[in-house]
Each structure stands twice: as structure tokens, then as C-alpha cells.
Amino acid sequence: MADNWAEGRIALVTGATSGFGEAMARRIVAAGGQVIATGRRAARLEALAKDLATDRLLTRELFYTAVTRAEEAVLVVGSEAAVRAAVDTTAQRATGLRQRLAGG
Question: What predicted TM-score, i.e. pTM, was given to this entire model?
């Protein structure tokens, strides 16, 4: 698999404060992707964000999902410019499901 396999992709990683979720968040960022990391332990999310030291954030759809599904808090890590750019970015749907269902 190429080193940049996640470039241009955005992933919502749940359970990113430990175990498999944390490992996936790290791997996606290392491969050039953007990650929205969620988890129950805010301190561990902050530590992950500091460790990754990235402005690879989210789209407005994923931001909305994170905010509306959070039980206590959402931690957004990044510069103001990066957050504004993320909120202005619409998610691209690249699953191809619509074409498969349409028989194309």
C-alpha cells in the first residue's frame, strides 16, 4: 500500500482515545488523510492532537455530526483558519453507491 493512501480523504474515527481507534487515527494522519477523532476522554484526545500536531480537520458535515452526537464535549484542534476552511468544505461522497444502485 502506498504511503499516501489516505491523501484527500477524511475519516471520522470513533474511540480514538485508545486501542484500535487511536491506532487508526494515527495511521490515517501518517498516510496524509484528515481525521476527526472522537472519544470519551477529553484529556486523551488533547494528547493525541498534540502528538499528531496537525491541522488536518473536518468538513462541516462531520463537524455537525461530532457536535450533535457528543455526550459531553467536542474538542476541535487546529488554527482558526483551518477550522474555518474545514467548515466551508463540503464532504465529497466517493463510495459509488449511487451509481451501483442506478445500475451504472
Answer: 0.56
